[in-house]
């Protein structure tokens, strides 16, 4: 019987500010579920983080926290390649080649650039404009066939595909593996508890709308009790008519594994207060073991360094192979070591 080769997946989260329940349910929890079925590369993308000004010590600590949280949530370093983006110089080496093959018009159309640059003022960092090509380098460097993304990130994968196909047309059709967006069937797009029409964010101005992975049990309870719900009293799922209630239902379903209909059925005849309190309990129960394991890992930096060095070594095997192939195609002089 022929052995089916696993497809390759790459994903990462910016370690800006603190990771949220949205990062966990929308990404990390899904990584844990799929890690055995794919060849996985997971990273903390700290180079993307500095497209907006960061305090160095905060960025460093947030990066350690992100890696520890991945492992605490169930990412197995023995199964996946786990590393920090800035520890892999191949990312920026490949990015330069993509800068030379990407077009200004493409980058100017990127929705996130438009959104972020509109808040920056007159002095827009060049990195804010070009970072989608660094993201493309992240993906193409590991011959990733699939990229787990939310709907708001599909445009970045499309740009990666366009640039990869362009380079393949110039330098040979097998220069790059052309990736596809992978939107998992499970998971949730977690919304802000105070503004349930907006996605829960690490950088929200009003922190009471975000559940952070390091929040205490009391903080979680208070935030859910103050969560904005909707007019009426029936607990039904409809993000257009009842975004606040629907967000809480979605959070419960993502954690418990129940269907949306099953969660709704449990609340027939109950009040919004029941939904808020029980959602807080479910979230606390999910996060507590992760919090305990995260603190344990952060107390042993030596073990985290060992894990990250191993992950970087594994990733470098693939990254160096890709970089050599592209350097040869482009025409750079290289010496065999």
Q: What's the domain count?
A: 2
- Helical content band: 40-55%
What's the CATH H-level homologous superfamily of the largest domain? HUPs
The number of distinct helices, counting runs of at least 4 residues, comes to 13
Question: In CATH, what is the class of the largest domain?
Answer: Alpha Beta
Taken from the alpha-carbon principal axes, the silhouette is globular
Q: What's the CATH architecture of the largest domain? A: 3-Layer(aba) Sandwich
* Major pleated sheet: 3 strands, parallel
Determine the structural class based on helices, strands and strand pairing.
Answer: mainly alpha
As a whole number of angstroms, the C-alpha radius of gyration is: 21 Å
Beta percentage is 5-15%
In total, the number of strands is: 5
Query: Can you list the strand order of the major beta sheet?
Result: 1-2-3
CATH topology call of the largest domain:
Rossmann fold
End-to-end separation:
39 Å
Element-level helix/strand string: EHEHHEHHHHEHEHHHHH
């Amino acid at each position: 019987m022929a052995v089916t080769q696993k497809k390759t997946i790459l994903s990462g989260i910016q370690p800006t500010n603190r990771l949220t329940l949205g990062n966990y349910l929308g990404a990390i929890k899904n990584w844990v579920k799929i890690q055995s079925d794919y060849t996985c590369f997971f990273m903390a993308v700290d180079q993307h983080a500095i497209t907006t000004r960061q305090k160095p010590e905060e960025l460093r600590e947030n990066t350690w926290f992100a890696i520890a949280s991945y492992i605490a949530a169930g990412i197995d370093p023995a199964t996946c390649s786990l590393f920090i983006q800035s520890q892999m110089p191949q990312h920026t080496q490949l990015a330069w080649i993509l800068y030379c093959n990407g077009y200004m018009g493409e980058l100017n159309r990127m929705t996130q650039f438009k959104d972020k640059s509109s808040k920056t003022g007159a002095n827009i960092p060049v990195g804010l404009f070009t970072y989608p090509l660094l993201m493309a380098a992240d993906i193409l460097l590991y011959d990733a066939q699939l990229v787990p993304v939310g709907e708001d990130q599909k445009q970045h994968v499309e740009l990666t595909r366009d640039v990869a196909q362009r380079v393949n047309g110039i330098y040979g059709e097998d220069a790059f593996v052309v990736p596809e967006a992978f939107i998992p069937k499970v998971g949730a797009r977690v919304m802000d508890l105070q503004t349930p029409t907006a996605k829960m964010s690490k950088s929200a101005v009003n922190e009471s709308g975000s559940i952070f992975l390091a929040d205490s049990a009391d903080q979680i309870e208070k935030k859910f009790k103050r969560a904005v719900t909707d007019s009426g009293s029936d607990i039904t799922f409809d993000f257009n008519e009842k975004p606040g209630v629907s967000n809480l239902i979605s959070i419960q379903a993502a954690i418990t594994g129940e269907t949306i209909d099953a969660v709704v059925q449990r609340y027939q005849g109950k009040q919004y207060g029941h939904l808020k309190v029980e959602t807080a309990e479910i979230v606390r129960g999910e996060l507590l073991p992760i919090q305990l394991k995260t603190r344990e890992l952060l107390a042993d930096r030596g073990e985290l360094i060992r894990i990250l060095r191993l992950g970087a070594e594994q990733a470098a095997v693939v990254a160096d192979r890709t970089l050599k192939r592209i350097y040869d195609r482009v025409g750079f002089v290289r010496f065999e070591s």
